[in-house]
Amino acid sequence: MHTKNVGTNPEEKLDFKKILPIFVIVLVDLLGLTIIIPLLSFYATSFGADPFVVGVLAAAYPLMQFMGAPVLGRLSDRYGRKPILVISQIGTLTGFLMLGFAGSLWLLFLSRIIDGISGANIATAQAAISDSTTEKTRTQGLGLIGAAFGLGFIIGPVIAFVSLELSGNNYAVPAFVAAACSLGSILLTTFWFTETLPPEKRGDAGQRSSFSVRALLAILRHPAVGLLVFLLFAQQLAFGGFEQLLALFTLGRLGLNASGNAIVFVFVGVIVVAVQGRFVGQWSRHYGDRRLIYGGLGLLAVGLILAGLTPRQAVPWYSRVELEAELTTQASGLTMAEGPAASDIPITLPDESSQSWWGLLWLLAAMVPVAVGGGILHPTINSLITKRVVPGEVGGMLGISAAFYSAANAVAPVIGGFIFHRFGPTLLFTLWGLFMAVLLATAVRYLKPGREETAQPGLAHGRSGH
């Protein structure tokens, strides 16, 4: 009996039957977001927004998430995961519908604010994953949330590409498709998802404040997870800003329009799916979460610097006239929406004298370490956080983690948009890459082994114990 149990311990294997509904719900919900991401910068640019204003628009959603994540995390600890998921998804649906009907820049902002207020459902989904996993399978389980992001970044941009092609680059059409995906997510949660936190395991959130800046800052002094939360925030300052401003970069450096930019996101999504859906669980068991964090930071440092050095060479199919026409056409198809004149487009487009595959190939090569590093860090840091707190605090802690993550996503595009606008993307991406190198040195110096490693001595040597 002893021999039979070795290697077949149920704690060693992820229960995919429990995880599948959460994975599918998150995927469908994320399809809405990933349909919008590749074209949001173009949508704003069509209303005359410069890189700084685009950065502020990108910050609106995560800023509202920052406010909502701790609230929803704590409420899900008290009332269960299912009702919180449904409520937040209704807000997402409302935001996408408003985005589709937006006829001006301020309506774009309002739609992202509404979506962001209720957009902390990923933290609740992560808590549901934590409810359904053991310490040994949690990194893999949380990695599947990341894999849902990756699949979303494959399927969502493809849907955006097809929607744009069929609608003659009408940016409102993908927004309505995103709303349909959000409605599907609501239906799936209502009729398929089974509550993962039974009443007897729920904490009394009424005894604690759902949102407190003081409580959030106090977490940074937590001896077990303070540095992890800081690393999550700091790495996302660079990676999140890069994600939000990538479309503007490809527009000005390579001459890619919204459809072309969607293909870049598909490429990144394929890599993220491979990393988070298959490899991150294996790497976590073999090397341990702490060493994965080192690797993720190092890869991001290299990839961001390389991305910033992408040659300014338009893609072979680039047509400046056609791209200007797309950006100056009415963005939403409503008569009230008037785009800027071609001379007022706030991004300097490349000329047609230097067209080749070289710039695009360089960028795609740089995106490999960026995607792998980014794919590693988020689930691995969150997994390590859950392993270093007591079970009753997991939902609240993931909510706080999501709040810091959202805060970084709110700050990064504003700072990044300002530097982009004043000094260009090469300096911006290089600074972000160097910042990742500093974070790597900080993590190596101060991120010490926790109980998850001392309980498994083999991990201290880079191998999982037997």
Compact overview of the structure:
The chain contains 17 helices and no strands. With 466 residues, it is mainly α.
User: How many DSSP-defined strands?
Assistant: 0
Strand-residue fraction?
Answer: under 5%
Using the coordinates above, name the CATH class: Mainly Alpha
Cα end-to-end separation:
17 Å
**Given the C-alpha coordinates, what overall shape results?**
globular
Biggest β-sheet description = none
* CATH topological fold name: Growth Hormone, Chain: A
The helical percent reads over 70%
Count the domains.
1
What is the CATH architecture assignment? Up-down Bundle
* Rg estimate, integer Å: 22 Å
Instruction: Name the structural class.
Output: mainly alpha
Tell me what the structure shows:
With 466 residues, this protein is mostly helical. It has a single domain (15-194, 210-328, 338-452), classed as Growth Hormone, Chain: A (Up-down Bundle), CATH 1.20.1250. The chain contains 17 helices and no strands. The protein has helices at 2-5, 16-45, 51-79, 81-101, 105-117, 121-131, 138-167, 172-191, 213-219, 226-254, 258-287, 289-308, 320-328, 358-387, 394-423, 425-446, 451-454. α3 packs parallel to α5. The model is unreliable at 1-6, 205-210, 330-343 and 457-466 (pLDDT under 50).
